[in-house]
């Protein structure tokens, strides 16, 4: 994923150089490479290679001011990438094709693992629990776990959606594709499982926010930009009391 995002960030760097909020980097995303400065050294070496190639071609020769500005902007690219919010999202994948990895466990997606509960997993079924807690919880709860709303877990492309301010946007899917890991209801608008007959229930899909690269539809210049857009997030159970008329 990091190579795809790296490619996309470099592609848009020259287009959008706006200030970004400081964020905490993801400790699981190659922390050694960023903290040791390996990525920064790669960028500096690549910058020197570009400048040497430009010096050999008169049509690309830069003025001293342009030379200094390009060098400085490329030096800033390291922090721009390291602090970019898109790198902190395990449910966003950028690449040439749909990924086959499960972001929740870091292993390949398997057919038998494509269903999951929309509610939190029962603690007594959690493999991280110690044996004592596991046995105690199993004694207290003797019935098997049941999904309230069955869900499909899949990577999908989001092409048209809206941003945080409800503006219609088009997600950029040009040189590389952006995929979001989503949880879709198997039977949307269908009843939830295990709900009291005193209530009406309905499985419904809810959206969350994903930091993606997009264009606003109403922007006359169609300027690409990063920002939060709505993306499928989870399948929830909507419960309302039934109306029971007085007899």
List keywords for this structure.
10 strands; 247 residues; four-stranded antiparallel β-sheet; Cystine-knot_cytokine; alpha+beta; 26% helix; Cystine Knot Cytokines, subunit B
CATH architecture of the domain at 89-98 and 147-246: Ribbon
If strands are numbered along the chain, what order do they take across the biggest sheet?
1-8-5-4
Largest sheet composition: 4 strands, antiparallel
CATH top level of the domain at 89-98 and 147-246 is Mainly Beta
Q: What's the average pLDDT?
A: 78
What is the CATH topology descriptor of the domain at 89-98 and 147-246? Cystine Knot Cytokines, subunit B
Instruction: Give the ordered list of helices and strands.
Output: HHHHEEEEHEEEEEE
Write down the overall geometry: elongated
Protein name: Nerve growth factor-related domain-containing protein
Keywords: Signal
Signal peptide: 1-19
